[in-house]
Amino acid sequence: MRVVTEETLTLIADLDFLADVYQGLDSAPKTLPCKYFYDEQGSWLFEKITQLKEYYLTHVELDILDHHIEEIASQLGPNAIIIEPGCGAGHKVQKILHAIEQPKAFIPFEISGEMLNHSVNRLSGLFPHLDIQPLEGDFTNEEVVKQIVSETNLENSSNVVFFPGSTIGNFSRPEAADILRNFKRLSGSNGKILLGIDLIKDRDVLIRAYDDADGVTAEFNKNILTRINTELDGNFDVQNGFKHKAIFNEDNSCIEMHLVSCKPQSVTIAGRSFDFESMETIHTESSYKYSIESISSITDEAGLALEKYWCDNKNRFALCLLSV
Ligand code: AVJ
User: Fold this and answer.
1) Coiled-coil region(s) at which residues (predicted)?
2) What does the pLDDT look like over 159-171, one tens digit per residue?
């Protein structure tokens, strides 16, 4: 085995990424963390996914928002501070900011400074009088959130934490409860959380959403290998070496995305090699699906009350209103 040389390491900008990739590929079964999907190309591919007809999640959630916006806005009340952890393109929060009376501030809360800039620029163009206060940090980290809450005095106001898109689905149930506890801290006194969850449904509908006919999701999944090649001096055969696969794990109510090795092969990453058997998989993402019952048991665990929820007429997706 070749050892990783000093020279190789100085070429690698993100050593956390390298450590996570080594750890994931040393595990059995092999895994890679889904947060690494989202470089520039990956974020663009995700935007493309949200426009696919098979990927019902985005358009159904937008429809629910449009349909019930007045009731949602009245539940959230006037003068709220809106906090959005992991802000995306901002199309959803835009609807909330339009509908509520006199939002006091908008706080996009993101780990990537680049994404934050993007979101601040877009929304300040749309809402020139809105006070926008970006926060850079990891909303999954309890210590980070505690520090922010005390430094920014958020604990003394009533805030709305907006977490749409079924992003909560990327976390296991215990992790999801921890994240909701963090959101409870952020929401302050008398605060609210508006949470988007994807509902358990027919297997075929779920699989199609994660394995679309145009192969956009396959490209999105494989992009993590391209990233490893360019950023970590890897040599994955992205085109022909691996195939995208989506399965529905019914026991866990969870969609799993995998990359399946098409042949026995060895791949080198920053000087270390990893062997793959034919058909061996890398588990790249879990996307948990909920029922109203299963989400309310998690909100209970986090000390939050599920006050109300809004669904589409086919019960595909739900927006849940939680209160402290
Ligand atoms: C951004 C986590 C909500 O799980 O549906 C889309 C990511 N993965 N297609 C999801 C994703 C494949 C998405 N989330």
Assistant:
1) none
2) 999 999 999 999 9
Q: Hey, what's the torsion of the CAs at 265, 36, 33, 16, to 10 degrees?
A: 90
Q: Which of 61, 62, 166, when mutated, tests ligand 1's pocket best, judged by the most ligand atoms within 8 Å of its CB?
A: 166
Question: What atom in ligand 1 is closest to the CA of residue 170?
Answer: 2
What is each CA distance from 280 to 25, 26, 76, 267, in whole angstroms? 11, 13, 48, 13
Mutate to test the pocket of ligand 1, among 54, 59, 285 (most ligand atoms within 8 A of CB): 285
Beginning with the edge strand found earlier in the chain, give each strand of the sheet holding 281-288 in spatial order.
30-31, 281-288, 254-261, 242-249
287 CB less than 6 Å from ligand 1? Answer: yes
Domain 56-201+289-323 sits in which CATH superfamily? Vaccinia Virus protein VP39 (3.40.50.150)
Q: How far apart are CA 274 and CA 210, in angstroms?
A: 27
pTM: 0.94
Domain ranges in the chain are 6-31+205-288, 56-201+289-323
- List, as one string, the DSSP characters of 282-294: EEEEEEE-B-HHH
Distance (Å) from CA 122 to ligand 1 centroid: 23
How many residues make up the chain in this entry? 324
Query: Digits of tens for pLDDT over the chain (324 positions)?
Result: 556 777 777 677 788 999 999 999 999 999 999 999 988 899 899 999 999 999 999 999 999 999 999 999 999 999 999 999 987 778 899 999 999 999 999 999 988 788 888 889 999 999 999 999 999 988 999 999 999 998 888 888 889 999 999 999 999 999 999 999 999 999 998 899 999 999 999 999 999 999 999 999 999 999 999 999 999 999 999 999 999 999 999 999 999 999 999 999 999 999 999 999 999 999 999 999 999 999 999 999 999 999 999 999 999 999 999 999
